[in-house]
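Posting for a labmate who doesn't have an account.
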Amino acid sequence: MKKLSVLIAFLFLFLVGCGGSSALMKPSANQNITPASKKKAKIVFMRTSFVAGAINAELFEIKKGKVKFIGSIPMGSKIIHETTPGKKVYMAYGSAADFMIADVRAGKTYYAVVRPNWGTGGFAPTPVRTDGTTDFNTDSPDFKGWVSGTELLEPIPADAKKWFAKEKKNILVVYKEYWKRFQTKNMNEKAQRTLTPKDGM
């Protein structure tokens, strides 16, 4: 375990060294969040906290053990991820990796906050609820500020593809290690990290 922890730390430094993943992004020409299509769902990932603002955070979708790069999300930004309906797994990676599960429906738009995780030192993608049951919810006075106060970014396709091709093996090692840790969470802890169909708008 100690050797693996050292390897993870090395990979983090390696990725930071290659760093500049925020340079893979550009402001979207249209800053509006348009409604999801009838066949797709949208998840809006927002990063609002100034804590650990100097650390890049990358977002990935996990499909059957394979990792797909969504984009880099620097402080004060947001990314719109369009996906098919159904169950999904997302990973955020900064100085450590953490996960969010999602069960989304077509025609709905969902929100998640990529927040600093004091327990791991990384970032935790956290569901924004529509039922007011958590601090992260659409009824919160802060919600409109999270949406309006973040800049919508999108990947620069060629640059993102080249970066991910170079970093993919390292990211897979990080995913496998931290996914094992995530699996040790109990059902209630996992539920707190799960976007549900009713969270869509």
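Reply:
Got it, the structure tokens are right above this. Residues 2-199 form a domain with the Immunoglobulin-like fold (CATH 2.60.40.2890).
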